[in-house]
Amino acid sequence: MPGHRIFATTFARVYPMYVQKAERKQRTKDDVDRILCWLTGYDAAGLQQQIDASVDFETFFAQAPAMHPKRFEIKGVVCGVRVEAVEDPLMREIRHLDKLIDELAKGKPMEKILRS
């Protein structure tokens, strides 16, 4: 069975949408990058390398240096789907990221977003 089409979508194609969503709510690209680095373990250079290489979401998460263990504390609904109920592991990681960006856009403090 083929995966969801988002799996083959390039991360570089969606990344600007994350940044735009944040900026519309007076947050910054740096905030988005901080969330991405926290979630995946990429540093700024590694994140930029993934964007420049136009890797797909599947590769982006597969090559992540260290997925944050506190990501399982991310709960709630994104796009009508309860994050913790998503069964496919890759889709769950994508939904974790979506939820973090939503929290950023809703003005939640960074310490709470990063589960500090």
UniProtKB/TrEMBL annotation:
Pfam family name, one: DUF2200
Organism whose genome encodes this protein: Lysobacter brunescens
Entry superkingdom: Bacteria
InterPro entries in alphabetical order: SP1917_dom_sf (IPR023204), UCP033199 (IPR014580)
Protein name: DUF2200 domain-containing protein
